[in-house]
Amino acid sequence: MSNQQQNDELRQRLQNWPTLFQKYAQASTQKAVFQIISTFLPYLGLWALMYWSTFYSWWITFGLAAINALFLVRIFIIQHDCGHRSFLQNQLANKIIGWVCSFFSTIPYSYWAGVHNYHHGHSGQLEIEIRDIGDLKVMTVKEFREATPLQRFGYRIYRMPIVTFVIAPIIYLSFYNRIPLVNLSGWKKIHTQLHLNNLAMLAFYLLLGWLLGWQRFFFIQLSIVFLFGIIAMWFFYVQHQHEEAYKEWKDKWEYALSAVKGSTYYKLPRIMQWLTGNIGFHHIHHLNSKIPNYNLERCAKDNAFLDQYITTVTFWESLKLMHNKLWCEEKKRMITFIEFYHREYVRGLQMQRA
To answer: Which one, of 50, 76, 73, lies nearest residue 219 by Cα?
Structure first.
């Protein structure tokens, strides 16, 4: 079956997708409360253990941070769902819990939620003013070909794994989430909330630093947040930068196709799926962001027909995705820099012969 035939079939089967997935978009107070308890208690317990370990070995502390970073991912998934207004039925409770979670993740609640919801409504659109909002920067083959040597060099540096997955998360958490770089219509209130969130978090961190000791507190918290940022960036990359991703110009873009074809199913071991709040079922999440994380797996199992259209990636398979660098409009897929330069060499030979 050709890609076009597959898309046509998927369109047909998802004609009533809002109705098809509506029953899963029901928040459960019982499930939400259990998730809060099973997430925050281990996180706080490990945090206390990390504090105790600083009196014996900073290396042990950092090792424990690697474990606690995964619980921070789970805390952020709660914040993420609150931002989609899906975690609880009560919207005031969603806001309060989302704000509390932001003090742990360091990611401002309202501002990030606004950017992320914009991403959901435009994921895969190629317009440059849309493409990078809430997503990693990606250039098309045509853009990279026409770029200056300095622009090419900058993009190649940005797409180096050490930069994309280690340095970029630090910049993202410490700079991009501190100032209102995204300024959409009607966002004045969101910008105000961003500044309030930053000030409240700063005051909270200063208080804890004063009570617990500056060196110990900031080493523990920043170690956790640093590792959390790497994990979060990696997941976001894997979920949207796979080879057969869906990307189109706005006039041809389709929401349902973008959700299913543009997002992966990141198939992980059971414990990792639990720690990451089922976010690996990303195709389901993009089809209906109102489905809380604790219902994603059930929705995926009940609608297994989607499996024939999605890109399923295991952890080991996902490592290959870091080589994807450019979007090729001609082939409708991501390509590597090596493939680009090989094509350019062949293209140059053909032009000489012509």
So the answer is: 50
> Do 47 and 39 contact (CB within 8 A), yes or no?
no
Model confidence over 247-293: pLDDT tens digits?
Answer: 999 999 999 999 999 999 999 999 999 999 999 999 999 999 999 99
CA distances from 70 to 40, 74, 174, 184, 276 (A): 12, 6, 20, 32, 7
What CA–CA distance (Å, rounded) separates 106 from 198?
8
Give the C-alpha separation, 290 to 288, whole Å.
5
Distance CA 282, CA 297 (A): 10
Which candidate, 21, 15, 33, 5, places its Cα nearest to that of 285? 21
Of 129, 135, 142, 123, the residue nearest 331 (C-alpha): 142
Alpha helices in 123-213 (DSSP H): 128-131, 141-146, 149-158, 161-162, 168-171, 188-212
- Distance (Å, rounded) from C-alpha 156 to C-alpha 244? 21
